[in-house]
Specification:
The chain is of the alpha/beta class and about 725 residues long. The protein has 25 helices and 21 strands. β10 and β11 form a beta hairpin. It is globular and about 100 Å long.
């Protein structure tokens, strides 16, 4: 006799009314089928991944496609290993049809019956977007809460008066409100089950152009941005593997640590999640610009043009004639020849790469002037090895290094003056510093611009090594082919086919040729998502536009949280930096912050920004905002930790003397952006200073709390 199957439901005693077989028996039966399918899919996916990794593709497109398939299978395998029955988010009943179950990924049984519909599929849209005003054809919806692989609660919503099964689980908002009240953890909670209709509409919006997601604290902007990344990669063919992928830019390392588990839980791990500093090699080590005035000067979008002018100063054709001596003739290279060679550089090619093109043209010009009776290879070699020509060319078009170019701006006032006509002499003096390579975060956009315009100084040497290695391998293969043909005594002389050029080249093993190391953060990306975008300067935007030629962006932010002010509209701001096709979607409901805290925070920001978009809270915690003496800080934290045992995370904001612990963070208001905590203990003056920055910092800090806020007074 087979063993009794364990129910997927583990409802607590106070929810016994929901444990009726009439309510959960069909789900239990379906979950059993899901469990069997997960086991089968685990084995199949692991096998396919192993086979894919064993393939030995040729370098190029074949290798890219193999790697993309391996990443896709690995991501699916991790999701299957991480979840089991709890792959299921909930179910819907459209019209009179059977229930359809929505999951983190799609799943079928042995007969091809759909057990789970991927949450990103069009058929799943109504699970998130249906409302009583627009049920989208549904008569009911059920959402599950999973705890350690079993259902610990569920909630039903009914959209048709004749669809009631029971009132035991009927509470339209309980699933969502219960999730809002759950304790925080060091990582962002899994909220896929409770995505709201307004958020889902943004998640599924087209990737064309720039979509701005504008919303105040607690509106779910970050949730929307992360889920939108996963959705677009699944649903949008413009973001298919091999087309660039998605770059997600967050404000800080603390933020990245908070959200880094969200996309893997959604079955996506191909998204590059980085800070702006990460986009420049070594940028994460850059310091803070100590002088705000200098930071403002470096924030300008004009620096890209300045770097371009600086590079062109190192691309100046000589105006004097040069005598180039060879064993066969003395040749003259005049100004017109230099001009012709310099003009041969392809537009848009980086300086160091174009250098090779210009050199090749110079050598060819001189080679063509030799009498044809001389040996061409020897003539070419003599020209290329001419010391005077090489020296003149290096002076006219030197090999450059990006960091060195930017360092020269901060150490050579005359050089800086030649490329920055918009700056005053005093402003140029402000930019000079003792150690020009002591990089700050404000320098990174300039270094980034220089890297794109100059290119890798080692690339030319690598290309020469590649060409030499390829030539050596082909020469070796030619000898092998000669031997094979000589030994071929067949009637058809099949080995003679190896004389065909394509066949000879196919015999060369490209894997032995030195390969360039590609920086995956240079792009181009098919889509870029930016969180806390209100803080980006014009120079920062240039970094992102360079990496996304398609101008396909999701831009997430809140103008009221801009530390340095944001007086323009989003459309005006983005058009100024080069984005034209801009749509704005607003989020106005605060799902996270209790009403008690928002009532205290709203006056703080409106005193500095009267038209601030302060969202409306939909819940009350019953816990008033507290004002306590600063010397009670440690007692407050100790009491909270004792009362909350091992659940929840607190944060002390604005007090650098506090040393962080496992469950109590210590951050500045700027570092806390995008994060949330059960308890926030905020240090600092009750009334911010006259500037926008102080008001924004206090507003941001206050709205990090999801349950309790304590304001410390001196």
């Amino acid at each position: 006799m087979p063993a009794a199957r364990t129910s997927a439901f583990a409802l607590p005693a106070d929810l016994a009314r929901k444990a009726s077989a009439a309510l959960i028996a069909r789900d239990d039966e379906h979950f059993a089928a899901i469990g069997a399918s997960v086991e089968r899919s685990l084995a199949e996916t692991a096998h396919r991944l192993d086979l894919t990794r064993r393939r030995s593709p040729r370098p190029g497109q074949e290798a890219v496609e193999r790697d993309a398939e391996a990443r896709r299978l690995a991501a699916r395998l991790r999701t299957l290993e991480r979840f089991s029955l709890d792959l299921c988010l909930g179910r819907i009943r459209p019209g009179d049809t059977d229930a359809q179950y929505i999951g983190r990924l799609g799943l079928t049984d042995d007969e091809g019956r759909q057990l789970l519909i991927d949450w990103r599929a069009p058929a799943a849209a109504s699970f998130f977007a249906a409302t009583h005003a627009d049920p989208m054809g549904l008569i009911s919806r059920r959402r599950y809460r999973w705890t350690r692989g079993r259902v610990s609660d569920y909630w039903d919503e009914v959209f048709a008066p004749d669809a009631f099964e029971s009132t035991a689980a009927l509470d339209d908002q309980s699933a969502f409100i219960a999730t809002l009240g759950a304790a925080r953890s060091p990582r962002m909670r899994d909220v896929l089950t409770t995505i709201q209709a307004d958020q889902d509409a943004i998640i599924r919006a087209s990737s064309r152009g720039a979509l701005v997601v504008d919303g105040g604290p607690g509106t779910g902007k970050t949730v929307v941005a992360l889920h939108r990344a996963a959705y677009l990669l699944y649903a949008d063919p413009r973001l298919a593997p091999g087309r660039g992928g998605v770059l997600f830019v967050g404000p800080s390392d603390a933020y990245l640590a908070y959200v880094d588990d969200v996309l893997p839980r959604l079955g996506e791990d191909s998204v590059q999640i980085r800070t702006l500093g990460d986009l420049v090699p070594g940028g994460a080590r850059a310091g803070i610009e100590s002088d705000p005035a200098v930071a403002r000067l470096k924030a300008s979008g004009q620096w890209s043009a300045a770097i371009r002018r600086a590079v062109r100063l190192y691309e100046q054709p000589p105006t004097d004639e040069l005598l180039v001596e060879t064993p066969w003739a003395d040749l003259t290279l005049g100004p017109a020849d230099w001009e012709e060679a310099f003009a041969s550089a392809e537009p848009g090619v980086a300086h160091n790469e174009a250098r090779d093109q210009v050199w090749e043209t110079l050598v060819q010009l001189l080679e063509d002037r030799h009498d044809r009776e001389f040996p061409r290879n020897e003539v070419r070699r003599a020209i290329a090895q001419n010391a005077d020509l090489a020296a003149a060319f290096t002076r006219a078009w030197p090999l450059l290094e990006a960091a060195g170019l930017v360092a020269a701006l901060w150490s050579e006032p005359a050089f800086l003056g030649r490329v920055t006509p918009w700056l005053t002499d005093e402003e140029r003096r402000m930019l000079q510093r003792d150690d020009p390579r002591a990089w700050t975060a404000s320098d990174l956009p300039l270094v980034d611009a220089a890297r794109f315009l100059i290119g890798d100084p080692g690339a030319a040497a690598l290309r020469r090594r590649q060409e030499a290695a390829l030539a050596a391998r082909r020469e070796q293969m030619d000898r092998v082919v000669d031997q094979l043909i000589a030994a071929d005594d067949s009637d058809l002389k099949l080995m003679s086919m190896l004389r065909v050029e394509d066949a000879q080249h196919s015999l060369v093993d490209d894997s032995e040729i030195p390969q360039a190391v590609i920086d995956p953060l240079e792009g181009p990306f098919a889509h870029v998502i930016v969180d806390e975008a209100q803080e980006l300067t014009d120079a920062h935007w240039q970094m992102l536009l360079r990496r996304c030629p398609s101008r396909s962006f999701t831009i997430v932010g809140d103008r009221a949280q801009a530390r340095h002010g944001f007086t323009e509209s989003w459309a005006e701001r983005l058009e100024r930096v080069g984005l034209r096709d801009v749509r704005v979607a607003g989020l106005t409901i605060n799902y996270r912050t209790p009403e008690e805290i928002m009532l205290a925070a709203a006056p703080v920001i409106r005193a500095a920004i009267p038209d601030a978009n302060v969202p409306m809270s939909i819940r009350r915690s019953g816990i008033p905002v507290e004002r306590r003496p600063a010397d009670e800080r440690d007692a407050i934290l100790a009491g909270w930790l004792a009362a909350h045992d091992s659940e929840g995370v607190a944060c002390v904001i604005g007090d650098p003397t506090f040393a962080a612990t496992d469950r109590v963070r210590s951050l500045s208001a700027e570092q806390a952006k995008g994060l949330e905590f059960d308890l926030v203990v905020l240090s600092g003056p009750e009334t911010p200073g006259a500037g926008v920055e102080d008001a924004v910092d206090r507003y941001v800090a206050m709205t990090r709390a999801t349950e309790r806020l304590v304001l410390l007074t001196p």
